[in-house]
Write the structure tokens for this entry.
Amino acid sequence: MTTTPDPDMKPGDEAEPGTPGAGEDLCETCGGSGKLADGKQCPECEGTGRVMRGIGGG
Ligand SMILES: [Zn+2]
């Protein structure tokens, strides 16, 4: 267990890129647009509109 954030992970990511069983999904915070309602970059997906979701996990 580490408290150091992985630089490859975004706040909204549930799994590291390339993690078996995980896949990209639309960011629920910005709806996949990468921007918030006020035009600012979405902090969850960092403007990509997509986050990594754990699939098949608990
Ligand atoms: Zn987002």
